[in-house]
Amino acid sequence: MGDRLARIRKHLAARGPEGMVVAGFGAVILVGATVLSLPLSHHGGVSVLDALFTATSAVCVTGLAVVDTGTAYTLFGQIVVLVLIQVGGIGVMSFAALAIRLVGRRLSLRAQAALSSSMLQRDVAGELRIVLRRIIAFVAITEGAGSLILFLGMLPAEGPAYAAYSAVFHAVSAFCNAGFSIYSDNLTGWRESPVVMATVMLLIFLGGIGHQ
Asked: Which of 109, 171, 196, 209 would bridge 146 by S-S if both were Cys, CB 3.0 to 4.6 A apart?
């Protein structure tokens, strides 16, 4: 088994960072689907295919769902979905940074000279680490601020504990452009709340433009 894993890692390394990204996404989806399939994660009626679809949709932040996230999954299952959304969102931003780096390597010599002071012309591994740290900081600050504002907006209608959980879940979902909600009617019930609606829209916008 160890030799087989070593061969797989060697094969992926030979394919470059693109192969690692694809393999990483696939691994997270499979792990997420496995956990969502456990009885601990749902109230029953969730098949392995449902769990796989949910995990894929969450990691790839599409927002498509075949079961009601708020009623089909337990609190543990919802947290798993939230983690998959977060990992997928950061992964998409990181993949975009990698794509920019790869495009930069294909620029003409004149263009490379013009961009010599930018991130595209420095040490690749070092720059990607720096970009990843910046992305994580950007995500943490934005989602943290969004969660706090959503909590204040939801608090009058929800208990403190549930308002905090709902605020965090929807801040992450909105920022990652995932479209998941723990409410059966999505955010229809909050359409009369300017604070909630404005915050969610801003998070969607900031997540859409990503890390710059």
From this structure: 171
pLDDT given at position 164: 97
| 61 half-sphere exposure, CB direction, 13 A CA radius | 21
Average pLDDT, the chain: 83
Nearest residue to 145 (alpha-carbon basis) of 20, 13, 153: 153
SS3 string of the chain? CHHHHHHHHHHHHHCCHHHHHHHHHHHHHHHHHHHHHCHHHECCCCCHHHHHHHHHHHHCCCCCCCCCHHHHECHHHHHHHHHHHHHHHHHHHHHHHHHHHHHHHCCCHHHHHHCCCCHHHCCHHHHHHHHHHHHHHHHHHHHHHHHHHHHHHHCCCCCHHHHHHHHHHHHHHHHCCCCCCCCCCCCHHHCCCHHHHHHHHHHHHHHHHCCC
Task: Please state, in angstroms and rounded to a whole number, the distance separating the CA atoms of residues 128 and 207.
Answer: 19
Question: pLDDT digit string (tens) for 75-108?
Answer: 999 999 999 999 988 877 666 655 555 555 554 5
Q: Which pLDDT belongs to residue 172? A: 96
pTM: 0.79
CA 157 to chain centre: 28
- Is the pLDDT reported for residue 167 higher than 50? yes
